[in-house]
Amino acid sequence: MKTKLSIFLMLICFTSFFSQEITGSWKGELNFQGSKLPLIFNIKKDKEGYTSTADSPLQQVKDIPVDKTVFEKNKLTLEISSIGGIYTGMLEGKKITGTFSQNGISLPLILEPSIEKGNYAAKNETLQLPQNLNESIKRIDDFISYLEKNNAEAGEVSLFKNGKEIYKRNFGQQNLPSSSEKHSAFQIGSVTKTMTASMIFKLIEKKQLNLYDKLSKFFPEVPNAEKITISQMLNHTSGLGDYVQGKDDIMWLINKSDDKKIMAHIKEQGSVFEPSTDKRYSNTGYYLLTKILEKVTKKTYAENLKETFTTPLQLNNFYTASQNPANVYLPYDFIGKWISKKDFDFNNVVGVGDIATDPTTLNIIINHIFEGEIVSQASLSEMMPKGNDNFGKGIITVPFFSKKYYGHSGGTYGTNSLMVYNPEDKISFSYSLNADRIGANNFAIGVLSLLYNKEYEYPKLNNEKIPASDLQKYTGEYSSKEIPLGLKIFIEDDSLFAQGTNQPEFPLEYVEKDQFKSDNAGAKIIFTPEKKQLTLIQNGNSLIFDKK
């Protein structure tokens, strides 16, 4: 399911008319919700044109094939079908300014010459799990105490070693407007897909279903159904769209809908590409897999969950939407203070992202999956990602330097979750955050860094509240001579907000005198009121805006 909307400012660069040299290695960093992912593109030229490969140093992946490399009139286009990624940028001098798009999300990416291919190698040392985990647990607990004390996060985390829980903590709930002891579960979003995929593989094991059965056998009315297989829906190569994204209202599923309306939307979205010619994250595929599961078994999704997970694993805090659980933590956004967040009507995303549970239960499930107690080892092998592909059939790769974890992440409009397992160290790590200021990825990086005894600097937090009267001097319409992007600064609910032209608004958090930030947008804004200017710092770039 889609995570929280990624809000950022699109940087646009003017270009020259003369072609320049493009061959060599180019490096840059994607900044998504405060987390940085380095990328390197290695471009060569031969008689037939340009070829290239990509490296993702932090994920320990090199020489990812780039299917299409085009460089014309200073415009560079790179297409990587294995990850469903496209980069387009304009070369000016020694910098390429452009956009990297993947799974419906577009992020600014500026590339600069890399002195040495793979120059991030120093960051990729082999990690070793400390023998004394008590010290690691103490560091993690201190980190979470810091976040809780500074009103930065609320949620729950669990760590298992060799199938047993070694750490669990619920934190930050007392800082939220609505805190109750009756709450014990979190919405886990797309982590649900691992459960759905496991139940599909159970049917395959029973020979009630086949990986190569066509969608047309169950839903002939869906576009391209005669070409789409169960396998392709499981690993996001079906070409189906994403029904979670509305046509006129992008968040249409926060309101009550029904199967008839959803199927109509799926048919209207049609096919994005021919099956197996590309890869794009598709909630639609898992919506249809859930319906197929129910058709074949003649049981509801809730009944299938009970049979496969709840009863055999003796789970007592594990729910699907039809059970209407009343013990789920409410989600919040931070806008100077915690504000309740409107989330999905989870009956619209059954089997896609509707399960509510807790991190301990997630660790129980992922351990049983990897122990071969949910699906067979043959099925588990089929579910796992292959080669450089991070997406498998219900299981994804979550790399952390030299370590590879496997499981799934999940995000709703209000809660972020993760359930992963590392076979090498027999460690499983799960969390759910229903209130998040530093970014879920940053939370995960912090916990794993401290677990593996890596150096880690706590995020800087400032809870000083600036009176609205003191914010007034920053408000206004701003423009820049460097890019054709307007920037509006305004006050709402006594907090400062920024909004780029034709883009969503986002709150700004106070850092220090005249300085504000947005971790989700990866942006910092420094105001100079006496000059009627602001400086936007984002993705390593500094742009000056003048107040109109």
Automatic annotation (TrEMBL):
Checking InterPro entries in the record gives: AmpC-like, Beta-lactam-related, Beta-lactam/transpept-like
Q: Where is the signal peptide?
A: 1-21
Q: Say if the entry is tagged with keyword Signal.
A: yes
Q: Where is the Beta-lactamase-related domain?
A: 153-436
Q: Which residues form a coiled coil?
A: none
Q: Which UniProt keywords apply?
A: Signal
What SUPFAM superfamilies does the entry give? beta-lactamase/transpeptidase-like (SSF56601)
Q: Which PANTHER family does the record associate with it?
A: D-ALANYL-D-ALANINE CARBOXYPEPTIDASE, D-ALANYL-D-ALANINE-CARBOXYPEPTIDASE/ENDOPEPTIDASE AMPH
The name under which this protein is listed is CubicO group peptidase, beta-lactamase class C family
**Which organism was this protein described from?**
Chryseobacterium taihuense
